[in-house]
Amino acid sequence: MEWDNNFIYQTWLKGLYYGSDFFKQMRSDDFYRYYEQIVKRIIGFPGSEVRVACLSDDHEVVLGYCVFNDSTLHWVFVKPQWRKLGIAKELVPDTIKTVTHLTKVGKSLKPKEWAFNPFLI
Fold first, then answer.
1. Does a structural domain hold residue 47?
2. pLDDT at 67
3. Domain count, the chain
4. N or C, which end of the chain has less CB nearby within 10 Å?
């Protein structure tokens, strides 16, 4: 669904920009313009999957999502009011061994055995 993609782009970009000291060094309009293309490429890459958590009685209410392919996690997001309920753990597959995007919060939640490699798609 198109609105899902827009929601994903907005939350991923905002979360990465404000959650990373590295990206905050850029002008925000440059970051959003250029990095949106990277997010679109990751989502459109063959084998990429998006899992969406929504309310069981109203599928229009998105709680969060996860973007991954094979054993690589690219991004996971849960709306603030739904955090600390295990939604992210349910969204992320057990096969994950590498993560490509890290924020300050993400670093604190990433299992030690997962590698970090920002160059994988």
1. yes
2. 97
3. 1
4. N
- Name the CA radius of gyration of the chain, rounded: 14
Q: What is the CATH number of the domain that holds 18?
A: 3.40.630
Tokens read off for 22: 């590295």
Q: HSE of 26 in the Cβ direction (CA atoms, 13 Å)?
A: 17
Query: How confident is the model at residue 5, as a pLDDT?
Result: 85
- Judge whether 85 lies within some domain: yes
Q: Flag whether 23 is in a domain.
A: yes
User: Does residue 62 contact residue 54 with C-beta atoms inside 8 Å?
Assistant: yes
Cα dist from 113 to 83, 97, 108, whole Å: 23, 7, 13
Q: For residue 30, is it within any domain?
A: yes
Q: What is the pLDDT of residue 121?
A: 76
| CA–CA dist 29, 101 (Å, integer) | 20
Quick: pLDDT tens for 33-54: 999 999 999 999 999 999 999 9
Shortest CA distance to 19 belongs to which of 80, 86, 93, 70? 80
Could you tell me the residue range of the domain that residue 77 belongs to?
A: 2-116
